């Protein structure tokens, strides 16, 4: 896990600043939420951390390592999006194992890690099913298992529950909180839902127009 430090971050689209002199420190092992309305810059900031958007100003660090010009594949991050980023033609087990195979992890370790996260995410009973045989909540559990199985230093989550119905959202909130605590991974979570942010976060940063309005702990 890594501490994330962002100093004077800046991002401009079509001559319009969308991130403006933004400063935050995200403690190692915490679940830190970026909360704000659509268009406030929270997903842009997440993509800057991931390396998917260029950094036009400021400095980004994982611990003492500056990541501004580091390729996304070198940043050792896991990502979970609102759309389930899993392969429809692979079984649940093979989806969870895929990232480990790409990293050429030894077979015994691959099997061990895959089984660990199938169990942790409570999807071991679906290991041989294809994603289209699962509910939305189960598919999102697979996505999270895929992200965690490769042992990332940082987990980035962009509105991961927005496509789920209300009951499943509540269940997944609790699951994400419990698993994040158990794994202890530094997590940056993006949402527009204040209730969701209050339920799962160690700290919340409220964003508006590319600026952090306030940072605090949920009460």
TrEMBL record:
Entry annotated with the keyword Iron: yes
Listed GO CC annotations: plasma membrane; protein-containing complex
Ranges in coiled-coil conformation: none
Pfam families for this protein: ABC_tran
GO molecular function: ABC-type ferric iron transporter activity; ATP binding; ATP hydrolysis activity
EC number(s) given by UniProt: 3.6.3.19
Classification via SMART domains: AAA
Keywords linked to the UniProt accession: ATP-binding, Cell membrane, Hydrolase, Ion transport, Iron, Iron transport, Membrane, Nucleotide-binding, Translocase, Transport
Protein name (database record): ATP-binding component of ABC transporter
Organism: Streptococcus pneumoniae
Taxonomic classification: Bacteria, Bacillati, Bacillota, Bacilli, Lactobacillales
């Amino acid at each position: 896990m890594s501490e994330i430090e962002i100093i004077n971050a800046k991002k401009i689209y079509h001559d319009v600043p969308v991130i403006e002199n933004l400063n935050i420190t995200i403690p190692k092992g915490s679940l830190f939420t970026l909360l704000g309305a659509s268009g406030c810059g929270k997903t842009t900031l997440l993509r800057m951390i991931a390396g998917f958007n260029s950094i036009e100003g400021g400095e980004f660090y994982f611990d003492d390592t500056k990541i501004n010009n580091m390729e996304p594949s070198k940043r050792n991050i896991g990502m979970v999006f609102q759309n389930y980023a899993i392969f429809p033609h692979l079984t649940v087990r093979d989806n969870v194992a895929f990232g480990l195979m790409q990293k050429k992890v030894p077979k015994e370790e691959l099997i061990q890690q895959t089984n660990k996260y199938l169990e942790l995410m409570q999807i071991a009973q679906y290991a041989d099913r294809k994603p289209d045989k699962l509910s939305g909540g189960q598919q999102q559990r697979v996505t999270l298992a895929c992200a965690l199985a490769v042992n990332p230093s940082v987990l980035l989550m962009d509105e991961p529950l927005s496509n789920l119905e209300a009951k499943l959202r509540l269940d997944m909130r609790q699951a994400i909180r419990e698993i994040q605590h158990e794994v202890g991974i530094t997590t940056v979570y993006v949402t527009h839902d204040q209730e969701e942010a209050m339920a799962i976060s160690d700290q919340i940063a409220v964003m508006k127009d590319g600026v952090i309005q306030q940072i605090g702990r949920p009460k």
